[in-house]
Amino acid sequence: MHNTFMAVVERSHDKYTAYCPEIPEVKIDSRTKIEALAALRVALIQALDERRGRAVDNATPNTIFESITVG
């Protein structure tokens, strides 16, 4: 599945903070912008996998799963 998300990177004195407005619970602090973006990518994949897993775990016998593409 291919998704595109906005990455916001903010620089403070000694670190970069990266987050995704679409999934606000994922927020990364790192020493460099490149490290922050790489870690954000991994964290977003993990967050989406966890959400999908919870959806499957909480599904009823009548649940139908479909894939859609947005964008």
In quaternary terms, these chains amount to single chain
Computed CA radius of gyration, to the nearest angstrom:
15 Å
Strand content: 15-25%
Helix content percent band: 25-40%
Topology:
Elements: E1 8-11, E2 16-19, E3 27-30, H1 33-57
Antiparallel strand pairs: 1-2, 2-3
Notes on the structure:
The protein has 71 residues and is α+β, with helices and mostly antiparallel strands. It has one domain (8-57). The protein is built from 1 helix and 3 strands. A 3-stranded antiparallel beta sheet has the order 1-2-3, with helices on one face. Strand 1 and strand 2 (16-19) form a beta hairpin. The longest helix has 25 residues, at 33-57. 8% of the residues are buried. The mean pLDDT is 93.
Short description:
The protein is an alpha+beta fold. The protein has one helix at residues 33-57, and strands at residues 8-11, 16-19, 27-30. Strand 2 (16-19) and strand 3 form a beta hairpin.
